[in-house]
């Protein structure tokens, strides 16, 4: 309220300034007035985030979904001033209107309402049980499946994986060259240009899907699905996840600790268990709540082992448990205890894909931790900028530029960038207790955002491409979150 009063007072003062003081009027131009109003708008956003990061992020996730689907229900046309409960009701109504389109578990799991989360879970459990009948309660049958000992039969075919690995990339000619990667890296940290660019080379090869499949990062899949001890550890962690889903209210625990302890019980050493946890979460990050769809790319006939059931369940369960814990005021389930993340965020795959890639670059490619984390974060920036090429319609660069400064689309991208930066820093560190502050990263992006009026994307030509990149960087200032997530949080006044 103080900020709004200051803004109103400023405008009134400018309007009532005596005409005889024209020389002073010129000192406070329209540009100055705009800058004052922009700063007030920014400070309002920061204050709202500091007051309740969880609600702030939940509101933006809901508004992003509602705005994209605003033509489906009349209530979605005007959401100003509505409470989170009212927004949840609108989101649920939109989902009910799209039920005939059979939304995926992934889509349902990123809409923060109780019914949407439950529907995502039901669909996922149905996939584990190979049935599309949503009227059934699959929890107990999945639990029975997980309690069965791991069989000798591996659901995934090693020959099938090897065959996919040899395929060509469908967009070979669109791969960035080394100079383009070096330029991206130099913009972030000139001294780490070479190691960062080498890391990007590895990431591009790992993360571009081969012809005919959506699955990526096949080496990580091979590590976890062809190792009997890892298979048993996955079965044990699946049991824990099902039990967590049955407990109300939720308990204070997290997926990383659950995985590490399960892998230890299966006979892996502590170091092997940590590696298996990173690989597992990197694999699940490939598909999120749609992991079952990805997994089917790797099978010669669908055979459900306990490990498969766990992988299918994990992506959705993480979101469901994060949602329940956010409502209970507890830290999210999806991240280790050392990660500070008060912001509700139903896309933990951005964190874990970055973490797994950074760790792989450090431990297997001998790239420095700094170069590895920069390469992984640079890849996330490239993903955000090029999402139009990948079929995105709601957050592609064209629909970013035509939004106002703190539109929910922009705010969710700030969350994406901050969680990816946190994952990149966490994975590159040899210390799994490293303190990472995602909240500080999001706050920094809000603080550093340049408020620009909406405009269309400039098309055609190298110069226009550069202008588009410059504008995107001005809107998001992405590099600031990379530093902020490992910096001490500012003292709140």
Q: How is the topology of this model organized?
A:
Elements: H1 2-15, H2 22-25, H3 30-51, H4 53-68, H5 84-97, H6 105-109, H7 114-128, H8 139-147, H9 158-165, H10 178-188, H11 193-207, H12 218-225, H13 228-246, H14 255-265, H15 270-287, H16 291-295, H17 306-327, E1 339-340, H18 349-364, H19 369-385, H20 397-401, H21 408-428, E2 436-437, H22 438-448, H23 462-476, H24 479-484
Parallel strand pairs: 1-2
Helix pairs in contact: 1-3, 3-4, 4-5, 4-21, 7-17, 8-13, 8-17, 10-11, 11-19, 12-15, 13-14, 13-17, 14-15, 15-17, 15-18, 18-19, 18-21, 19-21, 21-22
Strand percent estimate: under 5%
User: What's the shape?
Assistant: globular
Low-confidence segments: 1-26, 130-136, 388-395
Order of helices and strands: HHHHHHHHHHHHHHHHHEHHHHEHHH
- Termini separation comes to 16 Å
User: How many runs of DSSP E, i.e. beta strands?
Assistant: 2
Question: Taking Cα atoms only, what radius of gyration do you get, to the nearest Å?
Answer: 24 Å
Which assembly state applies to the chains in this document? single chain
The total count of helices amounts to 24
Q: Give the helix/strand class.
A: mainly alpha
